[in-house]
Design a protein that fits this description.
The chain has 141 residues and is mostly helical. The longest helix is centred in the C-terminal third of the chain and has 56 residues. The relative contact order is 0.07.
């Protein structure tokens, strides 16, 4: 019996599993289980872009600009602005812990990203056969 479990209607799971195992076995036998570093797809810094977009919206006390699609929209927008102005201290107090949490989470994600970049630099150096730089190998805390 296979170590994979595939479920679904109208799906021949045994044939699928057999095909996957055959392809993986063939790649391993040929020494092609993992493509060389030069052939791996280059990934842009999507994580950095995501961090920047999250940082732009981390402050929960600042709402989006009021807008309305209704025919009497200008009066509604003015009412929303007045409501926001009148209750801003209450909004700040209610969302202050969320704001702190968001900023700490961004800091943690940035630290993880820095660690990932250091590990990527170390891996690249190891793949080239050169010793990694002192900056890329920092001690664990």
């Amino acid at each position: 019996m296979s170590r994979f479990a595939v479920e679904g209607e109208g799906l021949d799971s045994e044939a699928l599993v057999t095909d996957i195992e055959r392809r993986v076995g063939k790649a391993v036998a040929l020494g092609q289980a993992e493509p060389p570093a030069e052939q791996r797809p280059t990934v842009t810094d999507l994580f950095g872009e995501l961090l920047r977009s999250l940082a732009a919206n981390a402050d929960t006390t600042q709402g989006f600009p009021p807008q309305s699609h209704r025919s009497f929209g200008s009066a509604l927008v003015a009412a929303k602005k007045g409501f926001r102005f009148a209750f801003q201290p209450l909004i700040n107090e209610a969302l202050s812990r969320q704001k702190i949490f968001n900023h700490r989470l961004l800091d943690a994600l940035a630290a993880l990203r820095a660690e990932q970049q250091a590990l990527e630099a170390r891996l690249a150096a190891l793949e080239k056969g050169t010793p990694p730089s002192k900056r890329a190998t920092r001690p664990r805390r």
